Amino acid sequence: MNIKSLLLGSAAALATVSGAHAADAIVAAEPEPLEYVRICDAYGTGYFFIPGTETCLKIGGKVRTEGEWYDAYNPSNKVGTLWHERVELNVDTATDTEYGPLKTNMILRWEWNDGGATAEKLLFANISLAGFTVGKLDSQYNLYAGYAGDVINDDAIYDGPYELNQLTYKYDPGNGFSAVISLEDSNSGSDSDSYGGAWVTSKADHYAPNVVAGLGYTTDTFGFKVVGGYDSIVEEGAIKARIDAKFAGGVEAFLMGGWNTDGDKLNQYAGSYQDESACTTSDGVVHGAKCGWGDWAVWGGVGVPINDKLKWNLQLAYTDSKIFEATTNVKFNPVKNLLIEPELTYMHYDFINDDTVAGILRFERNF
Fold first, then answer.
1. What proportions of the chain, in percent to the nearest 5, are helix, strand and coil?
2. Residue 295 confidence class, pLDDT cut points 50, 70, 90
3. Which residues have a Cβ under 8 Å from the Cβ of 339 and sit 6 or more positions away?
4. Residue 290 belongs to what H/E stretch?
């Protein structure tokens, strides 16, 4: 065998081995396409599509810590100082349907007070579609008409119930006019004791709902709403009417009046936050109506922006039962989503000749 034949043979062998290895080579799989989170701006800021679905999701909440000095809601409560923490987690969803957006709203809350254990509750949980809302939410008596001012102790003089189950329909064609009707669970209010407690008929085995109805007209600078609520347990109710106005420089003001169908009784829509002991005379008679409105109540307030970080608010309220409230605060936002809010409230109760001054210093981070 000559050298030329040897070289040719070796080359052929190498080619054969190389071809065998090429046939056995591992081919890497193509990577799966990534699905990035898409922004969903159809329902407002903060929504995004849940990957793989057409449902939009929004997550938010708050962390709050505040010191409280004395109690604006109860003249018989002589607790001097209380520190309070609150955490809330908000989860909202929205999906487009042939009947409009199908939405859900859920708020979970955890709270802790000095010397107490952490308390948690499901604050809100509701579903809405085509103007209908079902589930847990503040009463439309408050939600539709509007709360009593941009202050923390806005309802030290009772303005209506909160956090109850309801079936609500709201008509809003987008031209300024609106209307609402709501069937509300008389057994589920978080503040059920505040509209009578032991002073009214027991709620046990009571099945008829309360009823709330309202009408209103709102523009960019003016609003008028009237809303009424009927308490099916007490078989009485109340009506509130409210005017809102906006002025140059961002100044806002409101005036709201309420009328109780029977000033000698408390009901869920004209009730009281005061402790029963504060409404009991020396002869042991409970005067629940004196702790409530009596026949009527009135609220008014103003909000004045000082600059883009600072706003001053004032709220005044008075009742036929001669309870007077004055609350003022300053809302300071040193940076976006951070609130520092000192507030003072003065309460006078004529029927027990008591004056109370209460204060709050709040720090809150929203996200």
1. 15, 50, 40
2. very high
3. 331, 332, 333, 362, 363, 364, 365, 366
4. helix 288-291
Domain segments of the chain: what residues?
A: 129-366
User: What are the Cα distances from residue 200, in Å, to 68, 208, 253, 264, 320?
Assistant: 31, 16, 35, 12, 20
Which neighbouring-strand residues pair with 349?
323, 354
73 or 203, which is more confident?
73
| C-alpha to C-alpha distance for 365 and 367, rounded to whole angstroms | 7
- Higher pLDDT: 112 or 10? It is 112
The top-level CATH class assigned to 129-366 is mainly beta
Nearest to 185 by CA among 220, 215, 212: 212
Cβ atoms of residues 365 and 63 within 8 Å = yes
Segment 295-308 shows an average pLDDT of: 97
